[in-house]
TrEMBL record:
This is Protein kinase domain-containing protein. Residues 40-55 have a biased composition (Acidic residues). It comes from Cryoendolithus antarcticus. The keyword Repeat does not apply. Residues 79-402 form the Protein kinase domain.
Length: 456
């Protein structure tokens, strides 16, 4: 039998609701205890990672400690703790949901708990503002996501928006972000397709991603990168004083698949949205710290362009940069991610991985020369030879229904089709362990519109 979710009254005898208000909150945003308190030991109920967590549940691994830590944080919140979505050196991302009195789910968010290493608290690249100003500095991730959500223009919807952020807890070196919840990651979608292909190797055509979908997804990522670089797709009205962003860790695991965006192109095709800005930076060609302060550490081996690695990474010598970071860095990584989707290959190993666009992409998967050529231009080793973002977007549009009369539409009409024909419908799936909830099955009267929106 399904267990009822526990809802705890957070009010105290003195009338204090126990609320630690986030820095920004929307009307539908979280309530309860969305983050650690400010570190005041007299009222700090955020457990210490090294000691209190063991008292809650004996823990011998960092993973178990983190799980206990976030469970404790939800004890005084109207949000219910769901499945873990991802984890890494930064911390943990998990799902939280709200239910009404009828156990109908009414809201979903992705929550990221960041456990910052102590020495990073004084490392300026992890902060926006003066790192010495403990009251006014903001984690760089929070600053970048806030800029994309609040300052950026059209196209910003191709990134995952921050719903609210919580103050940095200096005592425990933690902070929490509440973000939009999406269907699943591109990495998981690719992995599930690989699994289906292994079950039936002779049915490659039905298990591979159709070409029109790859064109659409490449456009999504291109537009996200244009917004990071310029602040808007609209060249005539860029945001004032926009600071260019280099994400540094674009890969299938940090790209989310979500519902089509209403009111625009491709109305019946899923959308890719860029997330995970923990390793991102504000920088441009005039930044004196670019690249030497940015080309080591963050990023994932196998998905890094040459300028994101240094000689010290491999030889143990003094770091020697390989060119500045910029929009071209993002271009390389979105190209590598789409090549992985086309080739079903997520096992990237080794430094300076060079994604391959070879004849197998054309023969085995039956993708066009036009798509292969654009992907190849994204992943050139020399940044100067990579295709520029605005040109990339223009070429995509030309090949998907916006080109000269008589030019073949590789998008097969999907850019304008309100509803795709049945033979073009793409049903993406994720493995059972990637579901959003933990021990909660929606009752019969569950909000079907919400469940359908999230592909559940």
């Amino acid at each position: 039998m399904q267990a009822d979710p526990i809802v705890i009254d957070t009010s105290s005898d003195d009338g204090n609701p126990g609320v630690n208000e986030p820095q920004h909150i929307d009307p539908e945003g979280p309530d309860g205890h969305p983050s650690p308190t400010d570190g005041n030991e007299s009222d700090d109920d955020w457990p210490d990672m090294e000691h209190d967590t063991d008292e809650l549940q004996p823990a011998h691994s960092l993973q178990v400690k983190r799980a206990a830590l976030r469970r404790a944080a939800f004890m005084e919140s109207s949000w219910h703790n769901g499945n873990e979505l991802g984890a890494g050196g930064f911390g943990t991302v998990f799902v939280a949901y709200k239910v009404d009195q009828n156990l109908v789910m009414r809201d979903l968010v992705a929550v990221k708990d960041v456990y910052m290493k102590r020495h990073h608290c004084l490392q300026w690249t992890y902060w926006d503002g003066d790192v010495r100003d403990l009251e006014n500095r903001v984690p760089i991730e929070t600053a970048i996501m806030t800029a994309l959500a609040d300052e950026a223009g059209p196209g910003a919807e191709k990134t995952v928006f921050l719903r609210c952020s919580c103050p940095f807890n200096l005592t425990h070196s933690t902070y929490r972000l509440y973000m939009e919840y999406c269907w699943g990651s591109l990495s998981d979608a690719i992995g599930q397709r690989v699994h289906e292909m292994e079950l039936d190797p002779n049915d490659l055509e039905s298990s591979q991603f159709p070409e029109f979908l790859l064109w659409k997804w490449l456009e999504d990522l291109t537009e996200a990168c244009i917004v990071m670089a310029e602040g808007s797709l609209d060249e005539t009205a860029p945001p004032k004083n926009w600071r260019p962003i280099v994400q540094r860790d674009i890969k299938p695991g940090n790209i989310l698949v979500d519902a089509p965006i209403p009111g625009g192109d491709w109305p019946d095709v899923s959308t890719l949205r860029l997330t995970e800005f923990g390793g991102s930076i504000f920088t441009d060609a005039n930044d004196p710290h670019n690249p030497m302060s940015y080309n080591f550490g963050p990023g994932t081996t196998g998905w890094q362009p040459p300028e994101l690695t240094s000689e010290a990474h491999r030889l143990g010598l003094t770091a020697k940069g390989r060119g500045k970071l910029g929009p071209h860095t993002n271009v390389f990584q979105i190209g590598a991610a789409l090549i992985a989707a086309a080739n079903y290959n997520l096992a990237k190993t080794g430094d300076d991985f060079q994604p391959r666009v070879d004849q197998a992409l054309l023969d085995d998967h039956n993708y066009s020369q036009a798509l292969a050529k654009l992907l190849h231009r994204c992943v050139r080793r020399d940044p100067e030879k990579r295709i520029k973002l605005r040109e990339l977007r223009q070429r995509i549009r030309e090949h998907t229904g916006e080109g000269p009369e008589g030019m073949r539409d590789r998008g097969r009409g999907a850019r304008r089709a309100a509803t795709l024909p049945e033979n073009m419908q793409v049903r993406l799936s994720w493995s059972v362990d990637k579901t959003y909830r933990e021990g909660l099955t929606p009752p019969a009267e569950a909000d079907e519109a919400l469940l359908e929106q999230y592909g559940l």
